[in-house]
Specification:
Rossmann fold, 21 strands, alpha+beta, about 575 residues, 16 helices, single chain, Hect, E3 ligase catalytic domain fold, seven-stranded mixed β-sheet, elongated, about 15% strand, five-stranded mixed β-sheet
Length: about 575
């Protein structure tokens, strides 16, 4: 009796499947979810079905069969919950000839399920429709044709400077010009805060935790709160659950400089919806199209900073702002951060190459106190800002000369690298000839010849690729994108600085070379060389109104250490 009731309910139950994607919007209002529902409900009731199960996949392409409600419907069919499937037409099931064919010709008959495609005049209860396979094929061709047209359209738009993506978090569409974005100040404030905190040496995890504690909506939930529809994966129930990856996404988005970047990803075919990272040469960038949220100098500095080695921490977990900036002038190793075992308030750096025991590569410790560094560097920055303020023209001329010198040095380095690669390329040609002759004379086996050939071919391919990149950079003068104006503007920001901060270091200084202290005329001397971002080293000339950098500190050896500005040494 129970089985009979179950069968009776199944026989009077029909599944209505509704689907709409962006492509289908081109067909007009008849394809809307609402109209599909009205049409199928009327048809199902006229055919005697009193129980209706409705499945909706809105905004999902018919090329893929991996749709939430479609999968749920198939599972319900397998569990005998309904005996019929109603769709507006076969294209609603999908635009995949093979998969739709398997469903209509194998799965539905095996499960004794009636198929009604209203607009295609298909009802399997009235017999097979010989045109159904052809309609499925046409549906797939339609998807392929639409995909081809969209690719061509996107290529034209993308190469003309029109953004192909929706505005990033922090921007919104310009209602007067669809090719540009406007700043969304509410979200842009969060973006700027993330950049500023990172420049102040907060980690991405720390920033995420602070944003969550401050109850800042994540980008997805922010858009939802504003009624903006955005494609996204299943959202987190906690609207304030920021993650490290979200912060990294913000920090690495070049569009915040005001740029439009198109063709960053691509799909391999209309059937494969996965996006792949595009090669750099295929990416198109239009600079300064939109109002910037972040200064370009700040963005570029953060990208450099993210490429550095992670910073060392104190025993209590606090980072030191000089970590990653200090280099040994003799061996080039990083200087590691330490604290004095007897007095943890005293912190210092020394060379990692000296601390490697039997494997040490440096003969001296290059010991330098952290508090001494802070005073010296702050003093040099103050002298720099005073110079920039009092002698603006002279400062600009000096900075320009230093930037050109830095660019020239990098160009020389690249030319030297190119010569080495060219020499290696010739060596590989000779090696190819040698192993070919050895193989022909029977000195090496065919198997050995094949392995060596692959090895040399791979290396030569890599060498040729590097050579071409270097040639392009040298010929186009891409040694280093140095902006004198940006550096001058950054220096002027800190005219009234009273305390050294991680942000100041990250924006102004690329590295500091630390030399081993030595005795000169009975005094202990230690030389420091500051390399500023973009321009390298900069020697401030003796001029009126520029203060001397008089720093004095008592070291662990009981010796007073002074910094002499003119000689750029610690005495």
């Amino acid at each position: 009796m129970r089985q009979s009731k179950s069968n009776k309910k199944r026989e009077t139950t029909a599944s209505l499947y509704l689907r709409l994607s962006r492509d289908d919007n081109l067909e007009g209002e008849s394809y809307s979810i609402g109209n599909q529902k009205k049409l199928l409900t009327k048809e199902a009731k006229e055919k005697g079905y009193t129980n209706l199960l409705i499945y909706i996949d809105d905004g999902i392409s018919g090329v893929t069969m991996n749709r939430p409600d479609y999968i749920r419907m198939i599972e319900d069919f397998e569990n005998n919950k309904s005996s019929a499937l109603f769709v507006k037409d076969l294209s609603r099931i999908g635009r995949n000839y093979i998969e739709v064919g398997k469903l209509t010709e194998e799965f539905l008959p095996e499960h004794d399920i009636r198929l009604v495609a209203v607009s295609d005049n298909i009802d399997t209860q009235e017999g097979e429709n010989e045109l159904a396979p052809i309609k499925n094929l046409f549906n797939e061709w339609y998807a392929r044709d639409i995909s081809k047209k969209r690719r061509i359209s996107n290529k034209i738009k993308g190469n003309s400077g029109e953004p192909l993506s929706a505005p990033h978090y922090g921007y919104m569409k310009n209602p007067d010009d669809k090719k540009t974005w406007l700043i969304d100040e509410e979200a842009a404030t969060v973006v700027r805060r993330a950049f500023n905190m990172y420049m102040q040496d907060y980690g991405t995890e720390q920033i995420a935790v602070i944003f969550e504690q401050d109850m800042i909506l994540t980008p997805v939930h922010y858009w939802i709160s504003k009624g903006i529809k955005k494609p996204h994966k299943k959202k987190n129930e906690n609207p304030y659950a920021w993650t490290s990856s979200m912060i990294v996404k913000i920090l690495t988005t070049q569009e915040y400089c005001g740029d439009i970047i198109n063709f960053k990803t691509y799909s391999k075919s209309y059937k494969n919806k996965k996006r792949y990272a595009n090669d750099p040469e295929n990416i198109v960038i239009f600079k300064d199209v939109n109002p910037p949220i972040i200064e370009r100098a700040i963005y570029e500095r953060i990208q450099e900073k993210r490429g550095k080695v992670r910073k060392r921490k104190k025993a209590d977990g606090e980072k030191n702002m000089f970590s990653g900036l200090l280099k040994c002038a003799d061996c080039g190793s990083n200087l590691n951060f330490h604290f004095n075992q007897g007095n943890k308030e005293i912190t210092y750096f020394n060379c990692t190459g000296y601390n490697r025991g039997k494997r040490k590569i440096c003969e001296s410790s290059h010991y330098i106190r952290t508090d001494f560094l802070e005073q010296v560097v702050l003093g040099e920055i103050r002298r720099l800002t005073r110079f920039a303020t009092r002698y603006e023209n002279a400062f600009a001329k000096l900075v320009m000369g230093s930037s050109l010198k830095a660019a020239e040095q990098e160009m020389q380095f690249k030319e030297s690298e190119l010569k080495k690669l060219q020499a290696r390329d010739k060596e590989l040609d000779i090696l190819f000839e040698k192993i070919y002759e050895d193989n022909a004379m029977g000195k090496i086996s065919d198997d050995r010849f094949a392995k060596l050939s692959v090895k040399y071919e791979d290396e030569q391919k890599a060498v040729n690729e590097k050579m071409q990149n270097l040639k392009d950079e040298i010929s186009n003068g891409k040694s280093k994108n140095v902006s004198t104006d940006m550096f001058i503007a950054t220096v002027q920001k800190y005219t009234r600085a009273k305390k050294l901060t991680p942000q100041m270091l990250n924006e102004l200084i690329d590295k500091i070379e630390v030399y081993q202290s030595e005795k000169i005329d009975g005094k202990t001397v230690q030389r420091l060389k500051i390399h500023y971002t973009c321009i390298g080293t900069l020697e401030i000339p003796d001029m009126d109104l520029i203060p001397e950098n008089n720093v004095k500190i008592h070291t662990r050896q009981g010796v007073d250490v002074h910094f002499d500005t003119r000689a750029c040494v610690a005495v």
